[in-house]
Amino acid sequence: MLKWWQERVVYQIWPRSFQDSNGDGIGDLQGIIAHLDELKDLGVGVIWLSPVYPSPNVDFGYDISDYKGINPELGTMADMEELLAEAEKREIKIVMDLVINHTSDQHAWFQSSRDKDSPYRDYYIWRPGKNGKPPNNWSSFFGGPAWTYDERRGEYYLHLFAPNQPDLNYYNPKVMAEVKDVMRFWLDKGVAGFRCDVINIIYKSSLADGRRRFALLGLEHYLSQEGCHKILRELRREVLSQYDCFTVGETVFITPQMARDFTLPEREELDMVFAFEHMETDQYLVKWFKRRFQAGRFARSITKWQTAVPWNANYLENHDQPRSVSRFGHDGEYWEKSAKLLCTLLLTLRGTPFIYQGQEIGMTNFDFTRMEQLKDVESHNIYRIAKGLGFPPSLRWRLIKATSRDNARTPMQWNSGPNAGFTTGTPWLGVNKNHVKINMESQMRDPNSIRNFYRKMIALRAGSDVLKSGDFTAVEIAKDLFVYRRTKEGSSLLVLLNFSTRAVTAAYRGELVVSNYDRTDYDGRLQPYEAVVLEES
Ligand code: TEU
Ligand code: CA
């Protein structure tokens, strides 16, 4: 028997860029409410909201200054309650982002913690320096050292992300009590679970220097530690198990074995995790060093995870990653075909599918031409660091353009009008000029649009036990070809994906279920970027 969170399709909203309702240029909760009917029509069963809590926006919501409030830029608590009620009317559940590795430095806990006599003094990881230098050699995810000195406290604090995102101290039982309290607060309001931000790095086993030559110094001391498993079991036992909800962990640098350890049902920790490996197949070591996308490498990684982990959280895009059609598809001539191919892939894999806003209309990477147009803290840090390393400006710009998180954060393209219908004011981040061609309004009208192909694939999945719960087996992986089979109790579907601009022979047989080309049967030949699902007998 499948759980509801295994049957439904999740749609991720990054609220700041979804829909502005009051003309201030910033997407908001009322803007989301205004589009619930379209999401229902698409077939969405769960919405994951990226953080909507008060935040100084150094990392746009991932730096939280109050876990029990709503960012006034996005709306009020009454708006949030209205969103929950309106979603429920449409049988859509809402999942929130739970960011508990760190808070904002503007959170009252941190401000108080700067005082050595405060009851909050041990809420964060404070250490004296070593001979005027940070307590250890760890580096942060956003570049630069993971420690910052605080004059008032006279000590350094640990931050695995920006200096404005101090890490919480999980050795302090009071921190655990606060986290449980926050979780209950939202679950009691009717939230159906959490996407748990960087959850596998919250527990630091030691603060010794990083030894191994990882891309990130210190990783071995906090990645997927036993202490983290213990925390997750406690949160599950004491809080989550009291509600009908689910959790998906965002788990960095994770291996299939680690994923099993977090998600096997008998361990009672998380329900599923986001892995990164398939998103790293077009890079060397770190994301700033791109290598050519190669579908075969990508398919092998997906196959490895489909095979090794019983239930995956499947995704091709989110607010941290470039747009999938620009990255794994073809955003020129085969834009539409390749977006539909990626849709076919996402919705025919085993696991829960996550669609990121705009993916369903084939939104592409940004068209910015200058660094000043970007807002992401990570992009600016890396640009600065690359400058320090002597990288020429053209190379720096190329790195940023291919990898910046702002690629996925440009405003949602609702129509071909001014600012793509996102706002009547000045958008907080530039709107892609291609909204004249790529927008929701025209795709809602066109029965053959990418959006309506998503709708069709979601419905196909909803009506198919094979797609929802069948086993996965890879059948053929070539340079540009990925063929796999889903089977359940004697029924089977074959999925054929051609990731190239050339027609290829793929001699398989079966009854045509769906194709992104207009055809009535399958003749053993795939057109450029063609995706085909066949029913085998
Ligand atoms: O992301 C964690 C994470 O690993 C990313 O920072 C990743 O390294 C980077 O984006 C890849 O480009 C989560 C959130 O999804 C992200 O938006 C936050 O900035 C980060 O945690 C800190 O909360
Ligand atoms: Ca607004």
Compact overview of the structure:
The chain is α/β, with parallel strands linked by helices and 537 residues long. Helices cover 28% and strands 17% of the residues.
Describe what you observe in this structure.
With 537 residues, this protein is of the alpha/beta class. Among the domains are: 369-403; 469-536, Golgi alpha-mannosidase II (Immunoglobulin-like, Sandwich), CATH 2.60.40.1180. It has helices at residues 4-7, 29-33, 36-42, 77-89, 108-113, 173-189, 226-238, 256-263, 295-308, 324-327, 335-348, 377-388, 393-403, 440-445, 450-462, 465-469, and strands at 10-13, 46-49, 93-98, 126-127, 147-150, 155-158, 193-196, 246-250, 272-274, 283-284, 286-290, 313-315, 352-356, 471-477, 481-488, 491-498, 504-505, 511-515, 525-526, 531-536. It has an 8-stranded parallel beta sheet. Strands 14-15-16-20-18 form a 5-stranded antiparallel beta sheet. A 3-stranded antiparallel beta sheet has the order 4-6-5, with no helix packed on it. Strand 7, helix 7 (226-238) and strand 8 (246-250) form a beta-alpha-beta unit. The longest helix has 17 residues, at 173-189. It is globular and about 75 Å long. The relative contact order is 0.10. The structure holds 1-O-alpha-D-glucopyranosyl-D-fructose and calcium ion. Residues 20-22, 24, 26, 28 line the site of calcium ion (CA).
How do the helices and strands line up, and which of them pair or pack?
Layout: H1 4-7, E1 10-13, H2 29-33, H3 36-42, E2 46-49, H4 77-89, E3 93-98, H5 108-113, E4 126-127, E5 147-150, E6 155-158, H6 173-189, E7 193-196, H7 226-238, E8 246-250, H8 256-263, E9 272-274, E10 283-284, E11 286-290, H9 295-308, E12 313-315, H10 324-327, H11 335-348, E13 352-356, H12 377-388, H13 393-403, H14 440-445, H15 450-462, H16 465-469, E14 471-477, E15 481-488, E16 491-498, E17 504-505, E18 511-515, E19 525-526, E20 531-536
Parallel strand pairs: 1-2, 1-13, 2-3, 3-7, 7-8, 8-9, 12-13
Antiparallel strand pairs: 4-6, 5-6, 10-11, 14-15, 15-16, 16-20, 17-19, 18-20
Bound molecules: 1-O-alpha-D-glucopyranosyl-D-fructose and calcium ion (CA).
1-O-alpha-D-glucopyranosyl-D-fructose is lined by residues 59, 62, 99, 141, 161, 197-198, 250, 252, 287, 319-320, 378, 405.
